[in-house]
Amino acid sequence: MFVVVKVVVETIPPIELVWLRYLIALVCLMLFAVIFHIKWRFNQRDLGIIILIGIIGNAISIVTQETGTWLSNAQTGAVITSATPTFMIIFAWWLLGEKLDAVKIISVTMATLGVIWIVGVHFSGTHVLLGIFSLIIAALTWALMSVLVKKVSGTYNSLQITIMSTFVAFVCLTPFVLSHMDVITQAHYLEPKIGLSLLYLGIVSTALGFVMWNKGLQLMNAASSGLFFLFQPIVGTLLGWLVLGETISWGFVFGTMMIIGSVWVSIRFAK
């Protein structure tokens, strides 16, 4: 996603880009709901949490994520937001009462050390400090959103949660997009780079990716599931090198080993 965003965000600004990917994702998700005959149910007391999930995670987090990638680079975007699991452990302890056992602390420490090694690989961009700040906000808000999803995961399936939260974010972003409709109307959607990028972001990164993430949160505790987020800087760095010509070093190799090791520790020694 970071690599595709870096390619298309030069043509379509972050907010408009997020709005378009959510529009595509909602069409795709509703088709899924019809095909699989999803039975809808809604508890009014969950409305506040659903709105928070949509605003915090699907709106603020994704906009700051794409803004940060725009201002820095795909590799930095993947690396900085990999702080998400650490924030998830804190929020899970605070909001869900999940215990901070030794396995969680060791695995997150290993992952953090791995991320630190990868961070030293490459920092660049037009406004890299502002980009890093945006990406930190993205990591914090995505972690909080994930823990909030966990709070309602027993009531709704992952597809329902994704549809509702994506719709909330789409509605929130619409007023901003309407004031800049020229950006939407003048984009060259038939150009393969633009059209295929939007389809990938909407269908794969949003519709499929969000549903799978929310489903994973239902099946595991929030703290442990967050560690799988750390495969992101590995893939982001490799694709940034392969597609965008960004550089990698031995620090990336060592950091990758630490991140994979942290996930193994979490799975192998989890209670």
Describe this structure in words.
The protein is an all-alpha fold and 271 residues long. It has one domain (1-98, 124-220). The protein has 13 helices and no strands. The chain has helices at residues 2-8, 14-35, 47-71, 74-80, 84-96, 102-119, 128-152, 158-178, 181-186, 192-219, 222-225, 231-244, 250-268. Belongs to the EamA transporter family. Residues 2-119, 130-266 form the EamA domain. This is EamA domain-containing protein.
Individual helix count = 13
Quaternary form: single chain
Q: Sheet with the most strands?
A: none
Overall mean pLDDT: 85
Count of individual beta strands = 0
Uncertain segments are none
Q: What would the principal axes of the Cα set say about the shape?
A: globular
How many angstroms does the end-to-end distance come to?
A: 33 Å
- The helix/strand series, from N terminus to C terminus, equals HHHHHHHHHHHHH
Q: What is the radius of gyration?
A: 18 Å
* Structural class label: mainly alpha
Strand residue percentage = under 5%
- Helix percentage: over 70%
Count of individual domains? 1
Give keywords:
271 residues; 0% strand; single chain; mainly alpha; 13 helices; globular
In short, what is this structure?
The protein has 13 helices and no strands. It is mostly helical.
Secondary-structure topology with pairs:
Blueprint: H1 2-8, H2 14-35, H3 47-71, H4 74-80, H5 84-96, H6 102-119, H7 128-152, H8 158-178, H9 181-186, H10 192-219, H11 222-225, H12 231-244, H13 250-268
Family: Belongs to the EamA transporter family.
Transmembrane segments: 20-40, 47-64, 76-96, 103-123, 129-149, 161-181, 193-213, 225-244, 250-270
Domain EamA: 2-119, 130-266
